[in-house]
Amino acid sequence: MTYDVVFVVASALAIASALGVVLSGNPFFSALSLIGNLVALAALYLLLQSDFVAAAQVIVYAGAVMIMFLFVTAYLGGRASEPLRARPWYQTLGAIVAAVAVVGELVFAIDQQAFGDGASVSDAFGAPQAVAASFLGRYVLTFEATSVLLLIAAVGGVTLAARRPAPREEGVIGVFEIQRPAHEVSLQAEVIDAETRFDVVPAGQARDEDGKG
Amino acid sequence: MHIGVAWFLGVSAVLFGIGLFGVFTRRSPIILLLSVEIMLNASNLALISVARYWGQQSGQVFALVVMAVAASEVVVGLGLVVAMARRRADLDVDSLTGLRN
């Protein structure tokens, strides 16, 4: 009985907070909702006797990874929120149709399957000792591959984020378009205007005067 | 009514659909990453419920590996977001079209 109540409450919380992540316009609120989602999922893991995974979920995921999200959101400030331009209606409709189709297909497939009561397991199932025996025994190669993956991701993250900002002269650097501030654009328009009117100032000289003024 | 593995799988399917909807509709790269996290966690729930159903540890091991993959994805994704912000690009995934042609 308690099992059923905990299951219903935890899955309702998980689904509600997932909707909060997807529908909220404020990325800070989205990140906080995802923490709620992760904690509710950890409760479901406990119901499935996966003690170690539940603990790792709360400590590593809801703790460390989400704090990183919150740091970046705070660093970006107001720029992190959703662009205000309206999205076309067919995009929303297509997304709803695709999501409902995938969920319907999965639920249908689950419904077709006749699940029994499942294996009966001892209390040691999911304990750190048992997980470690699998991880360092049968799946040791996976373990090593995971550590290499984490190293590569750490190097990649540093390489991406630690580079100096590129000079702002060209319009496009790499794949990112540069947005010039408005006053710079109007100054440039003035210079172009002067060139068309007098037709004597070479482009390089005009830019130098622009820099002095 | 007995709550069996099918109910856990159903919750996992619904969470996956919600994450998919988020990936399709949102444009802020941070919220896109959060939606992908929801999808990865839905797959984790499925893995762990099936591990319990068969009484095998393997599903839990794979769930831990998925968590490591999600952490790597967050590092690279947030690195991209910070690089975009540094270059004064618009934080809108629809405007990142430099590699289109």
3D architecture notes:
The complex is a heterodimer of chains A (213) and B (101). Chain A has helices at 2-23, 27-47, 51-76, 89-112, 128-136, 140-161, 182-198, 203-212, and strands at 172-173, 176-177. Chain A has 213 residues and is mainly α. Chain A has a two-stranded antiparallel ribbon. In chain A, β1 and β2 form a beta hairpin. In chain A, α7 (182-198) crosses α8 (203-212). The longest helix of chain A is centred in the first third of the chain and has 26 residues, at 51-76. Chain A is extended and about 85 Å long. Chain B has 101 residues and is mainly alpha-helical. Chain B contains 3 helices and no strands. Chain B is elongated, with a radius of gyration of 17 Å. Chain B starts with a helix and ends in a 15-residue tail after the last helix. The chains are: A mainly alpha (213), B mainly alpha (101).
Provide a short characterization of the protein structure.
The complex is a heterodimer of chains A (213) and B (101). By secondary structure, chain A is mainly alpha-helical. Chain A has helices spanning 2-23, 27-47, 51-76, 89-112, 128-136, 140-161, 182-198, 203-212, and strands spanning 172-173, 176-177.
